[in-house]
Every structure is written in C-alpha cells, then in structure tokens.
Design goal:
166 residues; alpha/beta; Rossmann fold; five-stranded parallel sheet; globular
Length: 166
Amino acid sequence: MGSKTKNLAVYPGTFDPITMGHLDIIDRALNLFDRVVIAIAINPGKKPLFSLEERMEMVRKCFPADYSRIEVDCVSGLLVEYAAQKGAKAIIRGLRAVSDFDYEFQLALMNKKLEREVDTLFLMPGFRWIYISSSIIKDAARHGGDVADLVPEHVNQQLQAAFSGK
C-alpha cells in the first residue's frame, strides 16, 4: 500500500456535497496522474449536511463501478501523513480565488515541512465553476434555488430531499 507510486495523487475535501467544480478538478488531476484518491475529510469542527457514508456514496456514484483510476476513501488526522502512507506524490488542492491562496499556501508549506516527499499541486476549476462551493450550493438549495446544473443529478436529488422538509 505504501509503495511509491509516481502517478498517484490525493484530492482531499469535505465534499458536502460533491459539485461540478470538484469533478472538474478531478478530471484535471486525472490528466496529470494515473490514479486519484478522493479523500473525504472527517473534520470534527465541521457539521456536514450529509453523513460520511452519504458523502462517500455520492462521490462513488460519479464514477463507473469498474473505474480503477479513482479510489474513494475517508481520512482523519494529518492529510500529508495519509498521502505519504498511500504512496502519493502529490496532494491536489482546488483554488477558486486569490482569497483561497493565502491559507492554501501556508498549508502547503507546512505539509512540505512535515513530509518532504509529498508535493501540493494547485489546480483551478474551469471558469464556469470558479464561483461555486458546496456551501453556496447548499445555501441556494436550502432556499429553493435551482442548483441542478452545478451538481451531479443524484446529488441534486439528495439536496432536494434534505431540504424538502424545511
């Protein structure tokens, strides 16, 4: 498991829920790496709308069952240690705006100090997805907004179900 795979990257996130912006970053990462582990973060400080199991299932449904280039996993603790254990050469981070950069840059420097073998690679989503985030999508859906073109269909259905009683 820990063998150094030159072509493996880890893409971490809360994915609450996964969006078209996330899928765009994953597509871009797959152009650069043979395999991508989508690592769903267990963050006790966050109160996600969807459970870990629901989020993992939503992500899995975005890819064919026999698709060997994607692995969906969960991670708690230090992400850079997880990436090193997986044998990943890079952590993928999506950047939407300059406001994301300062924090992400500091995180990348700390990760490099902790684990010199793992690099951080920043990818920007396509322009049509640059403004979206899971939080913005949840807020719009919570208030009855149509987010159908911003998330996969099965995710839109789960959002509608989650907010139908509110």
